[in-house]
Design goal:
Blueprint (H helix, E strand, L loop, with lengths): L5 H10 L10 H12 L4 H43 L2 H8 L7 E13 L2 H6 L4 H19 L5 E6 L2 E6 L8 H18 L17 E15 L5 E3 L1
Length: 231
């Protein structure tokens, strides 16, 4: 750098400034180089500046695309998490916060299951048909709960567990929500007609058994690899 003119050396130092806000713009650099190298260097300078501008624009576009992809992926992850957990819990976990167990003084829990499911499953001919039955059952119940202030906790085989009064407290309305939903679910499930080709007996109707209990409840996140919101 000993042979480099001081003015050019100053321009180079400025380009390496740790604070990007203090660095010259490409237009400013062009003007300074033209001023210090003279008109004979215009073609070379213009070419270098143009190349640098194109490269910078390409890098900026690539960075924007990467950031957009990252945001879209994060949104997909957040959407999946919000379907697995209450939104408030999912939001906390996405920000690295592990919510402590919480006591809810007034809630109502409902368990439901298909009457005679074991017999039904044994007559379903193939495991694939059992999955078809469960999918139809869960879809029917999922559709029913959309109109009520309830939270779907989990499903195990044909058992379907929901709760009202948490994770958002709703005063004394939890019992009414669950009771009304129970009638709604029983009616909808009774109207389901299973394809006769997946069964071996003559029954194509399902009957839902429902159990309800009201009282205090503790809810918390359990596990780390696949966290569950357990009551």
């Amino acid at each position: 750098m000993s042979s480099c003119p001081p003015a050019i050396h100053e321009i180079l130092d400025n380009c390496w400034d740790e604070n990007p806000n203090l660095r010259h713009s490409f237009t400013k650099i062009r003007d300074l180089l033209t001023k210090n190298l003279g008109r004979m260097g215009d073609n070379i300078i213009d070419y270098l500046i143009e190349s640098m501008e194109k490269h910078a624009a390409a890098l900026e576009l690539e960075a924007d695309n990467k950031m957009k992809m990252l945001e879209e992926e994060k949104q997909r992850s957040d959407d999946i998490l919000s379907h697995m957990l209450p939104k408030t819990i999912a939001h906390a976990l996405s920000h690295g916060i592990h919510p402590p167990p919480e006591v809810f003084e007034s809630t109502t829990v409902q368990f439901s299951a298909v009457d005679g499911f074991s017999k039904l499953a044994s007559g379903a001919k193939t495991p694939h048909n059992i999955i078809r039955i469960l999918n139809a059952l869960y879809t029917t119940c999922d559709f029913a709960i959309e109109n009520y202030d309830v939270y779907k906790v989990e499903t195990v085989k044909d058992a379907y567990m929901i709760v009202s009064g948490l994770p958002v407290r709703n005063g004394i309305r939890h019992a009414d929500n669950i009771a009304s939903l129970a009638f709604h679910m029983r009616r909808n499930v009774s109207l389901m007609e299973l394809p006769v080709e997946i069964l071996t007996d003559d029954s194509t109707k399902l009957r839902l058994r429902v159990g309800i209990h009201s009282g205090p409840c503790v809810a918390a996140i359990v596990g780390t690899r696949l966290p569950r919101y357990c009551l």
